[in-house]
Write a structure and sequence with these properties.
The chain is of the alpha+beta class and 193 residues long. It has one domain. The protein has five helices and seven strands. A seven-stranded antiparallel beta sheet has the order 4-3-2-1-5-6-7. Helix 3 runs antiparallel to helix 4.
């Protein structure tokens, strides 16, 4: 009987490991400097289904900046930021994804990329609402906070605070300590469960 339990445990452990993708998602923001404030997600790791290395990021942004952005809907697009832009951004928190969660994030990216144009609205459908939808799809709390929907860093700080316990209990969960934001050496990190 003990051997059967051990065998079942080994099989279940192997199945659980197979379900865990080797992809990390991190939530970033960039304050105004020479660019528009922005929120986006970065995916890194290895796609277990294809074996391909993944290092990309996605953020929703207007196609061009102009006065029309203040008046209503304008053309929007998914954008991938440069490595230097990522390096100069604030990393708020990160999670390891299952294959199912990874595919769900990619489906959200495709949905936003292929939305009927004009698809960007500074007040209703912007980079903050994009990262909020991703967070919700992963089971995190990401409520609409009207005063923060145009403030990516403040919004992600609030979402991090709302979900800190859940993030730190998540396999591979990581939360910035806000004093040296983006530096894993000084961040709180969870151990895999």
């Amino acid at each position: 009987m003990r051997r059967i339990r051990v065998l079942i445990f080994i099989l279940l452990a192997g199945w659980a490991a197979a379900a865990q993708a080797q992809i990390e998602i991190a939530f970033y923001s960039k304050d105004m400097a020479s660019s528009f404030p922005h929120a986006y997600v970065r995916l890194t790791g290895t796609d277990e289904q294809t074996g391909q290395q993944v290092d990309t990021n996605y953020g929703f942004t207007p196609v061009s900046l102009g006065p029309g952005i203040l008046l209503g809907n304008v053309r929007g697009m998914m954008e991938t930021a440069s490595p230097l832009y990522v390096q100069r951004s604030d990393r708020h928190f990160a999670l390891k994804l299952t294959d199912e969660q990874y595919r769900a994030v990619l489906a959200i990216v495709d949905k936003w990329r292929n939305a009927k144009q004009p698809s960007y609205n500074l007040n209703k459908r912007n980079c903050v609402t994009f990262v909020a939808e991703v967070a919700i799809a992963l089971g995190l709390k990401a409520p609409v906070l009207p005063k923060l929907m145009k403030k990516p860093k403040s919004y992600l700080n609030q979402i991090t605070a709302l979900n800190e316990a859940a993030i730190l209990h998540w396999p591979g969960g990581w939360v910035s300590n806000q004093q040296d934001q983006g530096s894993p050496a000084t961040a709180a990190t969870a151990t895999a469960h």
